[in-house]
Amino acid sequence: MKLPEEIAMLVSFVNMKLRDGYDSPESLCEDLSVSCEELKERLLAAGYVYREEQNAFRPL
Fold first, then answer.
1. Residue 7, phi-psi category: left (phi > 0), alpha (psi -120 to 50), beta (remainder)
2. Which of 31, 36, 56, 57 registers the highest number of CB atoms within 10 A of its CB?
3. Is the pTM of this model over 0.70?
4. Half-sphere exposure of 59 (CA within 13 A, CB side)
5. For 4, which DSSP code?
6. Across-strand partners of 51?
7. Structure confidence at residue 1 (pLDDT)
């Protein structure tokens, strides 16, 4: 699957998917057949990190 290019759309998309049906970024990435490492690096470069307690990517 092709993920959104624009960061705000990507964060929104990933967080919606995590909220609605995945318990971790790894399970989401596996299901979408995307590299979780690349996704996390891309979001980190934009100032977002995964917060396990919220199961979401949030600003640093």
1. alpha
2. 57
3. yes
4. 1
5. P
6. 56
7. 81
Question: Given this model, what pLDDT does residue 47 score?
Answer: 98
Report the candidate in 1, 46, 55 with the shortest Cα–Cα distance to residue 25.
55
Strand partners, 56: 51
For residues 3-10, average pLDDT: 97
Q: How many angstroms separate the most distant Cα atoms in the chain?
A: 27
CA distance 44 to 1: 21
- Both tokens of 34, joined, read 């995307």
pLDDT tens-digit series, residues 29-51: 999 999 999 999 999 999 999 99
